[in-house]
Amino acid sequence: VFDSMNYITEPERRASAFRCVRRAQRDGGLFVFDVNTPYALRNAFFDQQNLRPDAVVRYRWRSSFSETTKLCTVRMEFWLSGAQTGTPSFVEIHTQRAYEVDELCTMLDRAGFARVRVYHAYTFDACTQRTDRAFLVAEVGSG
User: Fold this and answer.
1) From 37, 69, 88, 92, which residue has the greatest number of CB atoms within 10 Å?
2) pLDDT tens string 26-55
3) Spatial contact of 119 and 132, defined as CB atoms under 8 Å apart
């Protein structure tokens, strides 16, 4: 959950992860996960901040997206209570890959899942071009 699969940035490693999950499951099992969609990563949906002086932890997140690599890099700066807003108390750099839903479905199919359903986050609605987070449910068939 929480877009952990986006952190597997190399497509072959993602496909390998799907094969490993499939081998570990029994017939009738489900593999459920969510992803940030290319729409979300392209449109800087990670960009956010809370720099209120009274916040226990203040933060500023800024992202950049490469159409060439399909990678979104987010620089997350944090200031602990009492720290000045100048130099952050600590910084994290997160990198996620944008995978198209069709690409994920193909990988799951090739990994041996019998059926894949895709939903707009937190609903049972179909995804649209403006879906920012998708939930995928891959079913293990018998045999």
Assistant:
1) 37
2) 999 999 999 999 999 999 999 999 999 888
3) no
